[in-house]
Amino acid sequence: MVIHSNPEFSILAFIKFLTIYVFEVLHGYEIQCPGTVHWNVRAKDLCNVELKYFCLYDDVNTNTTESCTGPLPTIAKGYKWVIRGNPDRGKCSLGSYQPYEHRNVKASACVYQKSLCSEEGQVVFDMGNTIDDQKCRCDYKRGYDFVGKPRNRCYCYPSTEDCSCFLRRCNITGVRMSQDYECIDNYVYNTTAICPTIVTILDKGLQQETVIKQKSIKLFKDNYIILDVQRNLLKIILTILICIPLAVPPLVLVIIQICKYINPPVFEETLNDTECIEGVAKVVLQCRVSGKNKEASWSTDSEIPLSEATIIKQGNIHQVVIKNVQRNHCGNYTVTVRRQSCTAILTVAGNKM
Predict the structure, then answer these.
(1) How far apart are CA 250 and CA 261, in angstroms?
(2) Domain residue ranges in the chain
């Protein structure tokens, strides 16, 4: 019996393992600050004393740094800890603020994210600063008013108040809503208004168009997302560049094995029916297949098994040699190369099949 090896599965398993291993190795060297749940575990594991541990963003090397040289002192409102050779203070980013003194040493972040003022009918009244949240107001020009009256008639703090807006149209023809959220005549200019108007551009470029204010915060967040995508894309490209040279040889073997199944061997010379006389010295049944190194298997329905015959392979020629031929050798002899086969009949005088 001929046993055919099939290396495709082991090769593919090797490629899969190699890809996962290299990808994990690349990711293994990127330090990321632990989350709140794992912070204490990481601190005790690395520093033994929890208060000595801090994990901050390095402005110079643009990566995350861990250290056991804490604790760091309290930092002023509106600032966060960063690394610039040594721990240093940096201003809160555009989309965050820090309203109180703190010792936050987790990933160089200010505690609070600024509100977006992006719910239905809302616009930005004031962008705030590094210690205050943005202020929101309802867009009276489109007929929106506050659902609940805020402490200040003109704006509200979304971090401490409900700044929801609803559509309240003035139902009288020729009437519009003023910046004080009151219905007034279209042709009346309210000189006693308390709230400022929603403007496009204000003095000396110190304030921007309301829509631009909203987009600036979104752009700030999008830039961080794009930066993160670029980093991940670089890791993927490096992984591919490392894996390709290692994966080419196994892939070539896989392709060769697949081609063998797609293009099965062709018999250039098939077995021929043979007649002989009992007692002849030997009979040779022979075939020729396309290509070399094609493994073949033989079978017969004669009374004498093939184990008493001699099977020979020379290049692309396959033979079965039967010596001292007897009547019991009569029968069908079949050779199979992969999924192709051919059969010949051996007839010994007096026993035609």
Answers:
(1) 17
(2) 31-113, 122-198, 267-348
Count of residues in the chain: 353
d(CA 168, CA 83): 51
For domain 267-348, give the CATH number: 2.60.40.10
pLDDT of 209 reads 43
pLDDT at 259: 67
Residue 242 tokens, joined: 């490392």
The set of residues, in sequence order, having a beta carbon less than 8 Å from that of 153 and lying 6+ positions away, is: 180, 181, 194, 195
**Would you say 125 and 136 are in contact if contact means Cβ atoms under 8 Å apart?**
yes
**CA 326 distance to own-chain centroid:** 70
Q: What pTM value is reported for the model?
A: 0.45
Within the chain, residue ranges assigned H as helices are 8-28, 36-47, 210-262
- Residue 207, pLDDT > 90, answer no
Dig out the tokens for 121 from the structure. Answer: 């009918």
Beta carbons within 10 angstroms of residue 225's beta carbon: 9
Q: Would you state the structure tokens that stand for residue 186, as one six-digit string?
A: 């279209």
Amino acid at 28: G
Distances in whole angstroms, Cα of residue 103 to Cα of each of 34, 76, 83, 113: 17, 9, 14, 17
In tens, the pLDDT along 256-282 reads 777 666 656 678 888 999 888 888 888
Report the interhelical angle of 8-28 vs 210-262 (nearest 10°): 150
